[in-house]
Each structure stands twice: as C-alpha cells, then as structure tokens.
Amino acid sequence: MSITRKRATKKQRAIEILIRLKREYPNATCSLNYETPVQLLVATILSAQCTDERVNKVTPDLFSRFPDAAALAGADREELETLIRSTGFYRNKAKNIQGATDKIIREFGGKIPQQMEKILTLPGVARKTANVVLAHGFGIIEGVTVDTHVKRLSQRLGLTEHKDPVRIERDLMSLLPQPEWENWSIRLIYHGRAVCKARKPACAACGLVDLCPSAQA
Questions:
Q1: pTM of the complete model
Q2: If DSSP codes are grouped into helix, strand and coil, which group holds residue 107?
Q3: pLDDT by residue (tens digit) across 121-167?
Q4: Is the Cβ–Cβ distance between 71 and 47 less than 8 Å?
Q5: Alpha-carbon distance 211 to 163, whole Å?
Q6: 210 is catalytic
Q7: Among the three residues 123, 138, 153, which one is the final residue of a domain in this structure?
Q8: For residue 119, which of 10, 76, 87, 130 is within the disulfide window of CB 3.0 to 4.6 Å?
C-alpha cells in the first residue's frame, strides 16, 4: 500500500519518492559523456551553469585534443578556452581544469584520488563535483549530489528548508539510506528535466503529486 503525504513521516515520504522515481526512470544514469574519471571531472566542471547537452557537444573535440590529465595540464590556455567557450564562464573553468589536472599530476600520481577530502583540494571542485566523480567514476557513494534540479525539487517536496547545497545534502543524507544517495540525485535530475521544471512544473502529469506539499491544485 502506498503512503500519503499527510500520514507519512518525512523519511517515509523520501523513501516512497525514491521508489517511484526508480520505477519511473529505471535506466537513469549520468548524462555526461566520458571515458575516464579525469574526463568525468572535467565534464562536471564544465557543467556548472551549463546544460549537460551543451557539455556533451564540447567534450568530443576537447578530449580528442587533450585526452588526459597531463595533456590538459599542459594545454595552451587560449586554445583550451576556445574549445570550452560555449559552456560559459570559460576563463574560470579553464583555470580550474588546468589547476585541478596539474595537482592530479603533481600530488596524486596522475590519478584522481578516491577520497572525498582529497578530491575537495582540487581547484574548482566542491562537493557536487566530488560526489559525481566518486559515484560515477569509482562507484563510491560518499554523499548526495545537489545540483539545481535536486535543490529545487527537494525544497518543493518539503524535504529541506535550506538553500545552501551543503545543508540540503545533509538533510537528504539523513532521510535516505547511503546506497541510495546517488540513485536519488540522478533520478530527481531526470524528473526535474522532464516534469518538475523550474518555471512551470507539470503537477498534473507528476507521479509524486500526492506526496508533494507544493503541488498545485
């Protein structure tokens, strides 16, 4: 028997939402195209304030020219900026990409470390990027990836009152079992793109409507 919003605790609602999302998007996975953890790191840095679709149009040429950490770290900055220009904020992204890959070469033997605290020392890497790389690059679930979709939907679903991504992540981690943290994020992202859009959520077509305190009548 499925639960309802009024009768369920916040944790029960979160679990039920996850169950329904997994049923609705059974094959959901990371939308970024990559072949190595380093490429995933770079693609995730590029995805800030940019759609995954746009990033996937940029990375084939980028990774063909600069396929690994050493090549990216030693790239001509102007050429790198030109290749990633369409993702926006390209100067800062190029600086972070080269700073991160240079540190990977110098301090981590050319490989991305598999510990959260070490990944967070890389330039341009906060918890969102670290969670994506650990989960999809190494199969390590350390936290909940909080992007704009996860932030918006978690607030609309009444699972957090915070605006800060770190606090939102902490709230979600307390509601969901650790093995499901990335399942939650990736499927909520799919739902945010398809149904619960920023400007006009399609509540009438939403399979979570009976669990959502923000649902429109």
A1: 0.93
A2: helix
A3: 999 999 999 999 999 999 999 999 999 999 999 999 999 999 999 99
A4: no
A5: 21
A6: no
A7: 138
A8: 130
